[in-house]
Structure formats: structure tokens, C-alpha cells
Specification:
Layout: E1 7-8, H1 10-28, H2 44-57, H3 62-70, H4 81-105, H5 111-120, H6 122-152, H7 156-160, H8 162-178, H9 181-213, E2 225-226, H10 236-249, H11 257-261, H12 270-299, H13 307-310, E3 311-313, E4 316-317, H14 327-336, H15 341-357, H16 359-374, H17 392-408, H18 413-416, H19 422-443, H20 449-480, H21 485-513, E5 529-534, H22 540-551, E6 556-563, H23 566-578, E7 585-589, H24 596-609, E8 614-623, H25 636-644, E9 650-658, H26 660-670, H27 680-683, H28 706-712
Helix pairs in contact: 1-26, 2-9, 2-12, 2-15, 2-16, 3-10, 4-10, 4-12, 4-20, 5-6, 5-19, 6-8, 6-15, 6-16, 6-17, 6-19, 6-21, 8-17, 9-12, 9-14, 9-15, 10-20, 12-14, 14-15, 16-17, 19-20
């Protein structure tokens, strides 16, 4: 049993932290103090691209999805597209108006989840949360996959390695967001505004050419024909097709709820700024959506779900080599001309803004995850802000889920978009229903006529929104269920089940560890304390541990050793007696040369004889400064701690003894301006009044081994 019973690793953690800290700082920047949180709040000009990039960028694919569905009935069905656009516009304005009421009534950032939980109950709130979490993951997957496909038309490598490219972009966005919401917002603002400006210039110039100059704009596919899958649809079949096209166009609404979830990230006045941003986003999105649909009709754009077979050039299918460009790209070619400066600029901005559209989810998912963690529905780690004051754990979780989805669906936006928008309309409907109840509750007590009039108007807006979005939800489920919507519903059920289980666990633990109701209740206090010092040899660490144990003034104190080598055990006993250490030494026999089991059985026997006694096991340990030194010392302490932690009434204390190498590591650490152990950023800098590092002032992770040893077990 040579050496000590184990060793601890706080300084090794410090060394590893030093090695990983440099690349971490390069990637995400220097850590920010908690009191600088206000500096990360967003003005409206930055909040718009941060929170609204998803609905703004959806105009790059939502019009195409409408035409793709209509193409099933042939080109003749295209004349329904303006009416579908009008329905989407009405729905967009309805949702925006409804959410403007939300941000004023619930500015804390809970959004749909808070509204549903407060007014409809925890189950409705959890349903909304599940729907939003699924939709945020899909937002990242769909936006990135669509962006990769747009970029792939110009760069063949991207098409050949779609999954790799999509995962790489997700990784890049993750790093940007880990740097903090304000910095990522600045990075994303320029391409978003370039895209919006480019689309508006395209719409204005296209309208001028068509209406004023009388020029005939011609899309690259204008001379193509479409082979309809179902010729001459009428009656219910036609209605179903139009509803399916409408539900595909509703992709333009995804991300609207992110602003209501992100109100805390706005500058003051938060609610007013969020409501203004919502209105601005709605106006821009519907104008671009309608403009692109109109230009697509004027320029003769043709789209097909299976272009290789259904698109005909001079009566012949175009074949599998043909690449079907998105509607926005074809319209830009018709308006600006293929290969012109404005065409290339808009194409580049479109591809980039589709990548950045995922940023809506990167801001919504972590915020919602933090609120759910605070309500004990998700692990508490999601409530903690990272070095840059962003919810880092939520960002990483979102990225991992999106990468998994991209891998499963091979970064195919056509497949992924079928899963889309189900969750968001579940949250829309429940949220607006909750708002109706909110206004009903306040109207019962409000007496001021002016305030009552505002409440009645708001209730009418939310009631209309709940009815409309509820009908759309039914349409979406009916038209998309067999096309992949069932996967999104399954994801919602899984999220709901997992979060319910986490909440039950936290509630069960809280009930189990709650303090007694009576202040004088001493049932938790043990009647006596039986202390045991584990001994392998008589050396400085052992003597320090014995001295510490004596200071504890236990009811009974003894030293304990396990006999695995008779010669070493005899030498230990002789040295103990020679030094006249006034602590009884007990030797446990171990015929099979085990150390852990005899100690555990002895501790349990003490507990069986005296169930109300507490047993304190004190372990002397080395503190070393080099990683390779850990390989040269006993592992017994870790195994013992791991077993003792599951024994009721047993406390484990590590008494460290710092070797010279640990002092060298400490000196290396002092060269840095701040402590780099995990959690040090959240603890704050060293207090100059004490002249000590946090590690020297006690507490978990302080280099004493008490917390590290037991925690690692």
C-alpha cells in the first residue's frame, strides 16, 4: 500500500485550462464581467437582423414552395398564387398585431411559453415550449440547408459535400453566437440589410420595367413547360392543393415569435422597441414576399417538385443534370440580367442571409432554454451565462441537435421543410388563446374606461389571431402530416416527455432535501461523529490528516489501514507505536488484497451498529503539478470516494499535501492576470484586499481536494 490513498487534480485542471484558454479566447473573445450585461443589449437597428432574419430570409424560399405545390396541377394553377400571397399577408399582419400585444403584456422574455403557462396552465405552457424548441432546431437545419443549396449552384464543391458544408456553417454560426449577441448582431446586420435592399431594388426596378417602360421580363424558365402530375384538378382536390400551397407559403411566418421571446435583449424601453421591430419586420417581409410572387408571375417563372421529369424544354424533360434555381434567383436574372453586378450581389446576399437566418433560433432557443431551466423543466446548466454573457450551453445544444438533423436528412431543404411550421403554429394558437384569457381576467377588475377600451381592442386582435392561426394549424396538419409533419410532432412529444421527467426529478429531490418545518427540529443532526483517518504509511500527509482529525473533536477517532502486505503492515504498526501517536490504529485483514471493499464494509458495520452516528472518513492526498505524476500514484481514494458517496451518513474529507511540483504549477498560474479554473469567470476576479487567488480562499475547486475528489467520483 505504498504512497497515499489517492491524489487530487485541481492544479492539473488549471494546467489543462491554460492550454484550452488561448484557443477559447481566440474563438469567443475575452470573458465579460456580469455587470457588463447591459452593454450587450440591442438597439432596434441590430435587433431587426438578429431576431427577424428568419422571416425576412424566408422570402427566398417561401414563394418557391408555393409555386412547387401549385405545379402539381400544371401552369394553369399558377394564377392562384396571388390569392395565396394575399392570404399569407393577412395571416402575417394578424400574427404581428397579436404579438405586439404579447410583448407589451409579457416583456420578461417568456414569450409564448409564459403566456400559455400563466393563462392556460403548465401543460399548455410545456406544449408550447416543446413546439418552439423543435421549431428552433428546424429553423437552423432548414435555413442552413437552403443556403448551402443556393451557394452550391455557384460552387460545385458545396453541392458535392452538402452535409459537411452545412455542418461547417452551423459550427461557424455557433462560434459567432458564443461571442455574444451584440457582436453576432453586428456581424449579421450588414448582409441582412444588403439582402433587404437588394430585394426592394429588384422589386422597384422590375415594376418600373413592366409598368412604365413596358418591357417584357423573361425568366430563364419562361419558355419551359410543366408536365402536371394531376391534370384538371377540381372540387375538393383543388381546394386541398390550394390549402397545401398556402401552408407551404406560411413558412414566411416562422421566426415571428422569436422577438416576443427576446424582449429582454432589447434596449429600454424594451416592450416599445420590440413592438416597433415586430411591425417593421412584418412590413418588410410581406412586401418582399408579394413582390417576388408578382415578379415571378410577370417573368414566367416555372418550378416543379421533380424538375428532371416534370420540366419540359421543347417538349423534352430537362433531365437529371438540370439544376432548378430558386424563384428569387430566376426573378433576379429576369430583372437585372444573368451575371450582372446586381444579380451577383443579390445571389450572394441571399445565400448569406439564409445562413444567418438561423441566428433567429440561436437567440430564441437559448433564451427559452434558460427560462425552462429556471422553471426546472431543463437542466440548470442551461440557465447559466457563459464567458461572453450568452447562454452558451443552450447555443451548443441547439447546434448539436441541428447538426444531427442535417446529417439524418442529408441537408435536403425539400425534405426538411415538410417538418417545418407545425410547431410554430401550435405556439401561435395556444399563445393567442392564452392572451384572450389574459385580457378577460384583467377586464374583470379594470374600472378605467380608457384602459378597458384598449383591453377590449387587444382582446379582439388576439381572439382573431387565435382563430386564424388555429385554422391554419389544422390546414398544416391535414396537408403536411404524411409529408413529414409527423416527425415534428414526434419531436414535440419527446421534448414534452423529457421536460416533464426532469421537472418531476427536480421536484422529487426538492421534497427529499427540504428543511424541516419546525425550526428546532434536530432530526437531521447525528448523535455522535465517528472519525476514521485512512493510513497507508506514516509520512507527512498522514500526520497532517491525523492532526486535522484531532481538531474536529469527534466523539471517536481512529486510524484505519488495510493489510495487503504483512511486511508493510508490521512496519506501519511499529512506526505508529514508536511515534506514540495517541490515535488508535485499526488494521483490517484483506485475504484477497482488496482495499476498497474492507473499508466500505467496516464503515457500513459502524452505521449498522449505530444508525444515528455519522462517520467521517478522512483521506490524506497528494497534490501534484504535472499530468504524468498522476499516473504514478494510488487510485484508491477515487474508488473509495465513489463507493462512500452512496453510503448514507458518511462524509468524506480530503486533506491535501502539496508536493514541490504543485508549487511550481501555482507559480505558473500566478503569471496570469486572472484565475482560469472552471467557473472562475462567474466568481469574479481576485480580491486585491486579500491578496489571494480564489483557489486559496476555500470553496469548491480551490485546490484543497475536498470538492474535487468527491466530485470526480
Amino acid at each position: 500500500m505504498g504512497g497515499s490513498y489517492g491524489r487530487i487534480r485541481p492544479l492539473t485542471i488549471l494546467c489543462v485550462s491554460k492550454l484550452t484558454d488561448v484557443p477559447k479566447r481566440i474563438l469567443i473573445g475575452r470573458a465579460l464581467r456580469s455587470d457588463r450585461l447591459g452593454e450587450t443589449l440591442l438597439p432596434k437597428r441590430i435587433a431587426l437582423p438578429v431576431f427577424a432574419s428568419d422571416p425576412l430570409s424566408s422570402v427566398a424560399y417561401a414563394p418557391g414552395e408555393v409555386l412547387l405545390v401549385l405545379s402539381i396541377a400544371g401552369v394553369s394553377a399558377y394564377h392562384f398564387s396571388p390569392w395565396i400571397a394575399v392570404a399569407v399577408v393577412v395571416l402575417m399582419f394578424t400574427v404581428v398585431a397579436s404579438y405586439r400585444q404579447n410583448v407589451h403584456a409579457y416583456p420578461s422574455g417568456g414569450g409564448d411559453y409564459e403566456v400559455a403557462t400563466t393563462n392556460l396552465g403548465p401543460r399548455a405552457g410545456l406544449t408550447v415550449a416543446s413546439a418552439l424548441l423543435v421549431d428552433y432546431v428546424l429553423t437552423v437545419a432548414v435555413s442552413i440547408s437552403s443556403g448551402v443549396e443556393n451557394l452550391g449552384s455557384a460552387i460545385p464543391f458545396v453541392v458535392e459535400h452538402k452535409v459537411f458544408s452545412a455542418i461547417a456553417v452551423i459550427g461557424l454560426l455557433t462560434v459567432m453566437n458564443l461571442r455574444g449577441v451584440r457582436e453576432s448582431g453586428k456581424l449579421f446586420a450588414i448582409p441582412t440589410y444588403v439582402f433587404v435592399a437588394g430585394v426592394f431594388i429588384m422589386i422597384a426596378w422590375g415594376a418600373y420595367q413592366s409598368l412604365v417602360l413596358g418591357d417584357t421580363m423573361k425568366a430563364p424558365t419562361a419558355d419551359f413547360e410543366i408536365k402536371p402530375e394531376h391534370q384538371g384538378l377540381a372540387g375538393f382536390a383543388l381546394v386541398f392543393l390550394l390549402l397545401r400551397a398556402f401552408s407551404s407559403g406560411c413558412a414566411a411566418l416562422t421566426g415571428v415569435e422569436a422577438i416576443s421571446n427576446g424582449v429582454p435583449a432589447f434596449r429600454k424601453p424594451k416592450s416599445k422597441n420590440a413592438a416597433t421591430t415586430l411591425a417593421l419586420m412584418g412590413g418588410l417581409a410581406v412586401t418582399m414576399f408579394c413582390g417576388i410572387i408578382g415578379l415571378a408571375m410577370a417573368s414566367g417563372v416555372k418550378m416543379a417538385e421533380t424538375p428532371a421529369h416534370d420540366l419540359l424544354r421543347d417538349g423534352v424533360p430537362v433531365g437529371s443534370d438540370y439544376v432548378q434555381n430558386p424563384v428569387i434567383s430566376q426573378v433576379a436574372a429576369a430583372v437585372f440580367g444573368q451575371g450582372t453586378f446586381f444579380f451577383i450581389l443579390l445571389a450572394a446576399a441571399t445565400a448569406l442571409v439564409l445562413f444567418l437566418a438561423a441566428n433567429t433560433a440561436y437567440n430564441g432557443f437559448p433564451l427559452l432554454g434558460s427560462i425552462l431551466a429556471q422553471d426546472r423543466y431543463l437542466p440548470r446548466q442551461l440557465h447559466t451565462r457563459g464567458d461572453r454573457l450568452a447562454f452558451s450551453n443552450g447555443i451548443v445544444l441547439l447546434a448539436g441537435a441541428a447538426m444531427l438533423l442535417v446529417g439524418i436528412y442529408e441537408a435536403d431543404s425539400t425534405k426538411l421543410i415538410q417538418l417545418y411550421i407545425v410547431g410554430v403554429f401550435v405556439s401561435f394558437t395556444l399563445s393567442q388563446t392564452g392572451m384572450v384569457r389574459h385580457w378577460n381576467r384583467h377586464l374583470r377588475t379594470e374600472k378605467d374606461p380608457a384602459v378597458r377600451r384598449r383591453m377590449v381592442r387587444s382582446r379582439a386582435i388576439n381572439a382573431f389571431g387565435a382563430t386564424f392561426t388555429g385554422l391554419v394549424l389544422i390546414v398544416v396538419l391535414a396537408t403536411k402530416f404524411t409529408h413529414g409533419a409527423w416527425v415534428a410532432l414526434l419531436g414535440m412529444v419527446i421534448f414534452y416527455g423529457v421536460m416533464s421527467a426532469i421537472r418531476k426529478h427536480y421536484d422529487r429531490v426538492a421534497a427529499e432535501i427540504s428543511a424541516p418545518d419546525e425550526p428546532g427540529d434536530e432530526t437531521a443532526r447525528p448523535s455522535r461523529v465517528h472519525s476514521i483517518v485512512l493510513v497507508s504509511k506514516v509520512h507527512r500527509p498522514t500526520l497532517r490528516a491525523v492532526g486535522y482529525a484531532k481538531l474536529m473533536r469527534s466523539d471517536k477517532l481512529e486510524a484505519l489501514s488495510v493489510n495487503v502486505d504483512p511486511a508493510e503492515t508490521k512496519a506501519l504498526r511499529d512506526e505508529w507505536e514508536r511515534r506514540s501517536i495517541n490515535v488508535p490504529l485499526k488494521i483490517l485483514d484483506s485475504p484477497y488484497r482488496e482495499i476498497t471493499r474492507p473499508v466500505i464494509e467496516y464503515v457500513k458495520s459502524i452505521r449498522r451498529e449505530n444508525p444515528r452516528d455519522a462517520v467521517s472518513v478522512i483521506i490524506p492526498e497528494y497534490v501534484v503539478g504535472h499530468w504524468y505524476e498522476h499516473l504514478l500514484h494510488n487510485q484508491s481514494a477515487l474508488r473509495l470516494k465513489g463507493r462512500l458517496l452512496f453510503t448514507p451518513g458518511v462524509m468524506v474529507t480530503s486533506v491535501p499535501y502539496q508536493l514541490q511540483s504543485s508549487e511550481a504549477a501555482k507559480r505558473r498560474a500566478k503569471k496570469r492576470s486572472e484565475w482560469n479554473a472552471p467557473g472562475a469567470v462567474r466568481r469574479g476576479p481576485v480580491d486585491p484586499r486579500h491578496g489571494k487567488e480564489p483557489a486559496q480562499q476555500g470553496g469548491p475547486g480551490n485546490g484543497t481536494g475536498t470538492g474535487t475528489g468527491t466530485g470526480k467520483a
